[in-house]
Amino acid sequence: MTYSTIRTEVHDRVGLVQINRPKALNALNAVVMEELAIALEEFDADPDIGAMVLTGDDRAFAAGADIKEMADASSVDMLKADRISRWDRIRKINKPVIAAVSGWCLGGGHELAMGCDMIVASETAKFGQPEINLGVMPGAGGTQRLTRAVGKALAMEMVLNNRNLTADEALRYGLVNRVAPVELSLGNAIQLANEIAARAPLAIRFAKEAVNNVYETFLTDGMADERRSFYFLFSTEDQKEGMKAFMEKRSAEWKGG
Ligand code: CAA
What we know:
Elements: E1 6-11, E2 14-19, H1 30-45, E3 51-55, E4 60-62, H2 67-70, H3 75-81, H4 87-91, E5 97-101, E6 104-106, H5 108-115, E7 118-122, E8 126-128, H6 142-150, H7 152-161, E9 165-166, H8 167-172, E10 178-180, H9 182-197, H10 201-232, H11 237-247
Parallel strand pairs: 2-3, 3-5, 4-6, 5-7, 6-8, 7-10
Antiparallel strand pairs: 1-2, 8-9
This protein binds acetoacetyl-coenzyme A.
């Protein structure tokens, strides 16, 4: 399969998937999400692969969902296209997926990393949910997964006031598994994935499922509510203004409407 926005490689028993839109800081447009889902599903079905690593580049894991792709959308457009449902395919991958994060890991990028089973961060990683700056809110699990990972106090600050976390803070608050120097972090993630890939595949599969089940019971309802609210915000003036201001590289003027 030839991809236009991602690259794939195999390292022993690990499938590596790299988001490859460096000029847009790896912003997650519809094509990226489709290709990511296909690549991960293919590795999931490959008996020679035991785990996957998902990464970006040194500057960005991913700076969020693609703002330019959705800036003019209405709530109805968002609901009909229901792009975020594509993300559910990634949630259904059976084999462990480790995110190797350097640089910006924001919005949908942060939600994608949190949707993986573990995160290896480089010292340069910066985690955040800046959607509030655009007049919207997280829409792909951010309010749910972040709160479960770091607790309500910090999640509120990140979601309501765009507080970013450094790699060391993310480690301290339990968001990431380990922090490594930037030149070692991807190798570190691949090594961890290969260690896991060497273990009993069925036990790994059921163990992953069991850990994730702890969160599933209420997560599904929470995410459905979150998604509806995210789409609803596309009927507000502030969403239009926030995304337009981003593209015009100026501060947004909020109307509250
Ligand atoms: N969508 C589309 N394009 C993006 C992007 C995004 N999320 N993030 C960055 N880019 C583009 C920029 O527009 C710019 O393109 P041009 O060169 O064509 O102008 C290019 O990537 C480089 O970005 P900057 O010049 O802005 O780089 P910087 O180093 O000055 O700033 C940054 C880096 C602070 C990460 C800044 O790019 C930024 O704030 N990005 C947006 C982050 C954001 O708001 N993410 C949330 C998106 S909404 C979301 O994710 C919803 C959800 O929950 C599903």
